[in-house]
Write the structure tokens for this entry.
Amino acid sequence: MKTALFWTTTLIFTLLMQIGAQKMMSLWGVFPNILLLAALFSGISRGTVAGSCAGFVFGFLADIFSLSLFGSQTFLYTFMGYCAGHLKGQIDEERPLAQTGIVFVFSLGEVAGLWILETFFGESNKQFYALASWLRPFYTALLGSLYFSLMKLWTSLFA
Amino acid sequence: MSQQFFRPTRGNFLCLFLLAFSFLLMTLRWTPTVRSFRALLFYCLSPAYEVPFAVEKGGTNLASRIQELIQTHQENQNLKERIKEVSALESQWRETQAENERLRKLLELRSALPFRLTPALVAGRDAQSWTHSILIDRGTENGVRLQSPVLAVGKGNGENSFLSGVIGRVLECGPHLSKVLLITDPLSSVAVTLPRTGEQGLAQGQGGLSVTVDYLDRSAEVLVGEEVRTSGLGGVFPAGLAVGKITKIVPSTSEFKRAILQPSVSLTELREVLVLEKSP
């Protein structure tokens, strides 16, 4: 019951945070990718199964609201959640720099992956010529450590 | 490492399944089923987009409303202060106007009466004996003498309506302050007459707010509401000054009739008085 409540509320709050981030945290058209952060945190804190499942759900949500190739973010987030799951227990709150680095690598991988998928399966990859697309990983990485700390606190409420 | 990463566990299979499913979504994205499914989910989840905007809008409105509320509160406080000031000023103005009116009449009176009138303000009262004596701000330096009659000014009856009536006599004199013994004090006695019948008596204080009129002839016809004035006997008060009105006839076993008199002026509300001195 607690687990179901945790995932439901996390899902809702993450979605709202992502929508809110677009409006309130946007800097020169760049805003952090909270959905990816949520997928990564799920993997890092709970393992590959939780990571891939969370990645699938959050990626699917991202796809619904995105104009990019439908299913591409689902695919990438699932894969990244799974990969993050292999880092379970290796990145704790005392290593914020490592968290920032990991988030940056995954975030950059997400943009690169989307670019590749759009190039091979999509109609146009022109959106990746914009600087904002490549600045997004930096912004997301900067918030990574803070988001992980908040999520850890949030998770402890359901422990 | 690679064996560990891809070992055939349920989690890995699940991940592979999800990846395959999402890849399938990608490839079948233009099929009517997937498009309808996506449209349906978008329709169901789109209200979520309105929440942060509603919160932001509500927050902005709330902030501006709080600001307005604070401004209104400050304005309200300022206006309340202003109202207080205006009320105080209005009260002061009314007071000054009334005082001006009284003093104007007093000036007119001074030239009309055959007495030297010394106007004085009530400077104080004895809190222990409110109806016994008052202090006035005039003394020997101002020509006030012992036993000088003291009259109240204000709304009165009779021809000199400004003279309300006798209130007492000067009991003690300082250079700039005098003590007036009120007619309600038990030590006070004023020779009075009932102008309607010419009956004479002695008004004596009882310590309260009323005064008794003693030594009235037993056969004298005394009516409630009848006016009582000074008789001029005794040499302190000149004749004809209003003292009060009879309010009650008291049964008496002695050979004299007794009545209760209500002073013509409220002795608790005295503010300005006149000290009478015969003109030299």
Summary: The helical segments of chain A are 2-24, 34-46, 48-65, 72-85, 96-121, 131-157.
